[in-house]
Design goal:
The complex is a heterodimer of chains A (about 250) and B (about 300).
Chain A (H helix, E strand, L loop, with lengths): L1 E5 L2 E3 L21 E3 L1 H15 L5 E8 L3 H11 L3 E6 L6 H15 L3 E5 L10 H9 L3 E10 L3 E8 L2 E8 L2 E5 L11 H7 L4 E4 L12 E7 L8 E2 L3 H10 L5
Parallel strand pairs in A: 1-4, 1-6, 4-5, 5-11, 6-10, 7-10
Antiparallel strand pairs in A: 2-3, 7-8, 8-9
Helix pairs in contact in A: 2-5, 3-4
Chain B lengths: L2 E4 L2 E2 L2 E2 L2 H12 L3 E7 L3 H8 L4 E8 L8 H11 L5 E5 L2 H13 L4 E5 L1 E4 L2 E6 L4 E7 L4 E5 L15 E4 L9 E8 L12 E5 L9 H10 L3 E4 L1 H5 L20 E5 L5 H4 L7 E6 L12 E4 L2 H13 L1
Parallel strand pairs in B: 1-4, 1-6, 4-5, 5-12, 6-11, 7-11, 14-15, 14-16, 16-17, 17-18
Antiparallel strand pairs in B: 2-3, 8-9, 9-10
Helix pairs in contact in B: 3-4, 5-8
Classes of the chains: A alpha/beta (about 250), B alpha/beta (about 300).
Bound molecules: flavin-adenine dinucleotide (FAD) and adenosine monophosphate.
The site of adenosine monophosphate has 24 residues of chain A, from helix 1, strand 4, helix 3, strand 6 and helix 4.
């Protein structure tokens, strides 16, 4: 079966972002970008399915500016076969991303689409569920284990109370959680090979998708800050302070 | 304007997080209905009808809703959506799974994890692991919103007398099937609602050492939490993870033990009222947000703490 993976280029998780002083957003100039960590997990899972003989071809898709080519090359170096960049400099919100992915699914006809559960920049946690809705497909979100069967996919999900296992009819959409796998580092030979793999570029317009944002960001500010308190010398002092000063115990 | 709140049901009972969503709905100012979909609705419907400020409780009963599968539940919500300007749910795993599906079927955006209601179409929400707070305005006719429960007081669980009205469900779509669940059983308070949370990190060294944390939590009547590293290492199950991509908590007292304080962890606990950090590394970033820091070996400090609390 053919697999599609959606990979987003985001500010690296190690960067402590700064809010711009004009409150228009966060500072993204001269900041390190990487593939969204959950999307690395999605690509890794796709590659493992292919290595296990359960998948035939892996197509990686990214939506955003030309720089997303880098993100796609990373996916190719990890083992994706081909990549599609849907290029735009506009802000593309989850509903529009889902519509673009739907258009590509109709073209590419994958049996399974793998996404991250959450992009660590907008923290929306929406796109996979929206894509499944638009396609009328079942969804296995927050997956910590996936196992393909005959025309089905068994997905174990991380939920508030623990774990839950579902059986989905294929085709389906899966979003990854942290415990699904540990993504590999691409080897140097694979990075070199990735440079020769096909990377096509299209536009949202060419796919017939209107990406006009539905949400307008009016301002972005810093959260209320917390300041460091005091160091206590020992457990007895700690308990005393919690009882008599903070009055929380 | 009219608001529909989707009740969160776990183990057949109404989850308290629903109360926080009702309170967020109250800030919008329109009449509030609650939708209860479950295998058996009687108990959660009655609990919902008793919530102060609720107008009508809509119920849909049947095996299709027993496990809150996304496909039938989203179809049900969409079928009931007519007449509502706002659809709200607490940002639990269930709503995070289902509501974006609802939003897409209605061709509207979702506003995830709101911290405040600034107006009927304007909300604030955290982005970048809570390192920035965005104010967003929705241009859509229906606002689909998940609510960060720690940002809203719970509505009163009693005092209401809403009418209960059954609605037709869409039935099972056949697209997905529940197979099994492995649910954690615990006598301790629920992590996201506990007054005290004691969390252990990689510094705990192994799952066998977690009873050190559990005994302190028990002495304080609190819940046990963990960092991602502790969950990834298999010390404790996934449902204990606190953070950007785990659970969000804001207890009166949060005790972080053997946790370094990565931004992804802070995202889940930095709104706690009082934070205590126990770490042997005095440079650990967790101390930058801690009200009380104890630089110590946890294997010595935790038994001492347990004893001091018991005394
Ligand atoms: C996409 C993504 C999502 C993430 N989501 C989350 C999330 O939701 N929640 C989360 O927690 N993390 C999350 N993380 C991981 C996060 O970045 C950190 O890796 C993680 O929080 C570290 O856990 P830790 O503090 O337990 O471990 P470490 O950073 O290894 O810290 C261990 C600490 O224990 C101390 N220690 C060791 N031994 C002792 C001792 N004997 N006595 C006292 N102190 C001791 C050390 O000094 C150290 O400070 C996420 C990461 C990514 C990339
Ligand atoms: N611009 C994008 N390009 C490619 N994939 C995306 C994009 N935005 C979101 N996704 C996918 O959708 C997932 C969830 O994102 P979100 O709903 O924004 O939290 C991500 O982990 C990606 O797999």
């Amino acid at each position: 079966m053919k697999l599609l993976c959606a990979v987003k280029r985001v500010v690296d998780y190690n960067v402590k972002v700064r809010v711009k002083s004009d409150t228009s957003g966060v500072e993204t100039a001269n900041v390190k970008f990487s593939m969204n960590p959950f999307d690395e997990i999605a690509v890794e899972e796709a590659v493992r399915l292919k290595e296990a003989g359960k998948a035939s071809e892996i197509v990686a898709v990214s939506i955003g500016p030309a720089a997303c080519q880098e993100t796609l090359r990373t996916a190719l170096a990890m083992g994706a076969d081909r990549a599609i960049l849907v290029q735009t400099d506009a802000e593309v919100q989850p509903l529009a991303v889902a519509k673009i992915l739907k258009a590509l699914v109709e073209k590419e006809q994958p049996r399974l689409v793998l996404l991250g559960k959450q992009a660590i920049d907008d923290d929306s946690n929406q796109t996979g569920q929206m894509l499944a809705a638009l396609l009328g497909w079942p969804q296995g979100t927050f997956a910590s284990k996936v196992a393909p069967g005959e025309g089905t996919l068994t997905v174990t999900r991380e939920i508030d109370g623990g774990l839950e296992t579902l059986e989905l009819t294929l085709p389906a959409v899966v979003t990854t959680d942290l415990r699904l796998n540990e993504p590999r580092y691409a080897s140097l030979p694979n990075i070199m090979k990735a440079k020769k793999k096909p990377l096509d570029t299209v536009t949202p317009d060419a796919l017939g998708v209107d990406v006009a944002p539905r949400l307008t960001t009016l301002k972005v500010v810093e959260p209320p800050s917390r300041t460091a308190g005091v160091k206590v010398p020992d457990v007895a002092t700690l308990v005393n302070r919690l009882k008599n000063e903070a009055k929380v115990i | 304007m009219r608001t529909l709140v989707i009740a969160d049901i776990e183990g057949g009972a109404l989850k308290p997080a629903t109360l926080n969503a009702v309170s967020a709905a109250g800030k919008i100012g329109a009449p509030i209905d609650v939708l209860v979909a479950a295998g058996s609705v009687q108990a959660p419907a009655q609990a919902s009808a008793a919530i102060a400020g609720v107008d009508t409780v809509l119920t849909a009963e049947g095996p299709a809703y027993e496990h809150a599968l996304a496909e039938p539940l989203a179809a049900l919500i969409v079928a009931q959506a007519g007449g509502y300007t706002h659809i709200l749910a607490p940002a639990t795993a269930t709503a995070k799974n289902v509501l974006p599906r609802v939003a897409a079927l209605l061709d509207v955006a979702q506003v995830s994890d709101i911290l405040s209601v600034e107006g009927a179409d304007t909300f604030t929400r955290p982005i970048y692991a809570g390192n920035a707070i965005a104010t967003v305005r929705s241009a859509d006719p229906v606002k689909v919103v998940t609510v960060r429960t720690t940002a809203f007081e719970a509505a009163a669980a009693s005092g209401g007398a809403a009418a209960i009205r059954p609605v037709d469900g869409a039935g099972d779509s056949g697209l997905s099937r529940f197979v099994s669940a492995q649910l954690a059983k615990s006598e301790r308070p629920e992590l996201t609602a506990a007054r005290v949370v004691v969390s252990g990190g990689r510094g705990m060294g192994s799952g066998d050492n977690f009873p050190l944390v559990e005994r302190v939590a028990d002495a304080l009547g609190g819940a046990v939490g963990a960092s991602r590293a502790a969950v990834d290492a298999g010390f404790v199950p996934n449902d204990l993870q606190v953070g950007q991509t785990g659970k969000i908590v804001a207890p009166e007292l949060y005790v972080a033990v053997g946790i370094s304080g990565a931004i992804q962890h802070l995202a889940g606990m930095k709104d706690s009222k009082v934070i205590v950090a126990i770490n042997k590394d005095e440079e650990a970033p967790i101390f930058q947000v801690a009200d009380y820091g104890l630089v110590a070996d946890l294997f010595k400090a935790l038994p001492e703490l347990e004893q001091a609390l018991g005394a």
